[in-house]
Amino acid sequence: xxxxxxxxxxxxxxxxxxxxxxxxxxxxxxxxxxxxxxxxxxxxxxxxxxxxxxxxxxxxxxxxxxxxxxxxxxxxxxxxxxxxxxxxxxxxxxxxxxxxxxxxxxxxxxxxxxxxxxxxxxxxxxxxxxxxxxxxxxxxxxxxxxxxxxxxxxxxxxxxxxxxxxxxxxxxxxxxxxxxxxxxxxxxxxxxxxxxxxxxxxxxxxxxxxxxxxxxxxxxxxxxxxxxxxxxxxxxxxxxxxxxxxxxxxxxxxxxxxxxxxxxxxxxxxxxxxxxxxxxxxxxxxxxxxxxxxxxxxxxxxxxxxxxxxxxxxxxxxxxxx
Amino acid sequence: xxxxxxxxxxxxxxxxxxxxxxxxxxxxxxxxxxxxxxxxxxxxxxxxxxxxxxxxxxxxxxxxxxxxxxxxxxxxxxxxxxxxxxxxxxxxxxxxxxxxxxxxxxxxxxxxxxxxxxxxxxxxxxxxxxxxxxxxxxxxxxxxxxxxxxxxxxxxxxxxxxxxxxxxxxxxxxxxxxxxxxxxxxxxxxxxxxxxxxxxxxxxxxxxxxxxxxxxxxxxxxxxxxxxxxxxxxxxxxxxxxxxxxxxxxxxxxxxxxxxxxxxxxxxxxxxxxxxxxxxxxxxxxxxxxxxxxxxxxx
Lengths: 322, 299
What we know:
The complex is a heterodimer of chains A (about 325) and B (about 300).
Chain A: H1 2-5, H2 7-10, H3 27-54, E1 56-60, E2 69-73, H4 77-84, H5 86-118, H6 125-133, H7 140-151, H8 157-164, H9 175-200, H10 204-212, H11 217-228, H12 230-245, H13 249-255, H14 267-276, H15 281-321
Antiparallel strand pairs in A: 1-2
Helix pairs in contact in A: 3-15, 4-15, 5-9, 5-12, 5-14, 6-9, 7-9, 7-13, 10-11, 12-15, 14-15
Chain B: H1 10-16, H2 24-52, H3 57-62, H4 73-82, H5 87-119, H6 125-137, H7 140-153, H8 160-164, H9 171-184, H10 187-195, H11 200-211, H12 213-229, H13 232-237, H14 246-254, H15 263-284, H16 286-297
Helix pairs in contact in B: 1-2, 2-15, 4-15, 5-9, 5-12, 5-14, 6-9, 9-12, 10-11, 12-16, 14-15
């Protein structure tokens, strides 16, 4: 495997205007080698190994104790087992619901805040940016712990205040919005900074032209600003989808206190429990591979879909220019 | 639930953007008011953590508010330092080790690779870069399990290496490093160095690396955060609690709070201490994280 990592720079060290060459491999190979070796060891090989594992399952031979376990090739058996398991399908269903609620809410909120911050009316922009970004400095596990305490009657000042005001709220009984809220809290500020940076990069003449044409702030925001930062929105959307599919930490913390969050609440939790609670590595590998496949398919859809729209857009633009 | 999420500021945007002219100050108030609401949403949970860390078990569970008479931060810190023979600060040192060394090496590896991608041309370069970019899209948690099984065959499960080695890989860091090199390392300077007879690696080490230092710091900062905040990988790899990072240690304590409520103040105070280094880093290094997110946004 290490042989393949030296290929890229190996044959021809085609450095422009190089006077001294460092051995037959050349400088680019030396500089790229550490990353490529680690990338191979920690990404490519594990992917291959997961696929390999997913095709086998362990069978115990012999009677009861002392029996040896043998690896048996089962083809797609682990995949049909995972897909046939209602708990696994429920995990995907939970994740789908989570995505439908979380992604539009978080993207909308971070875009809205970025647009507000970008408007000429906003004050103390540096402070707001920092304050909104700070949740990113909080580990997911601690964010989940803090919010879980804030959801727990008796500990949470918010819940207690609401209860004494006569409104009974049972956050822990509704795990989906409870988890979505934690994720929104963690990621809105981070993505807002990305959007804000993109908004700041819009040439001021374009915005002045919009104002001259009589566009109000809202028209400018939706008609000019958001279309111009589409690339950022798509990129954030892509990373958000991939991140959402890996949902693990927050539901694991809520699992202890919210009865609705079972130990297989997301596909990731399913894979974890298959591996470490049931020691069923074949099943765990198959569900990991399925999760990665869904992530790949969704990334493909997001990029392809937006690229097509971009092409149509530029086509239209060139047509109108004529 | 809806009571906990703030009012979406859209309503205020709409109010601020009505075509009929409202008084200037009104819309200014609306815009900044909405920003204040959003800020309250992000800061109040941290504020709660701050006050809660000064409460003892009874006040915390009883939901009593903090006063001068029941300020127990010192006691909590003392408990934190003594429980389990001071295991918490061992976790803290582990986290510093994983995140500090991991991020330093990772940033260096990323900058080396990004520099190579920027400066040199070689056959199949863009294809290789494409593979690296695809690596960004691989769900890291899907890799953790096969990595655990591989690590157990290499007998490095439950060692520092099991957490440290995977933390050194960050394809997005390579992408960022390439963008930063394109911005900070002008070709003429490298040509001049070559004219002076410096070797390629020497040119990188003494000139390229220095010029791309702001990018290096940015990648270091993000990787430090990522490793410090990582939970899944150590959860899978480690079973010896003396090797735990803070995140995993707090998780193990939190699991005990049901049976032993006296762990609540430990988890709360421990959480507060665990976020301090990152909060300080982000306050001090604002230029760097903004640069990182900007470079990531203009693809």
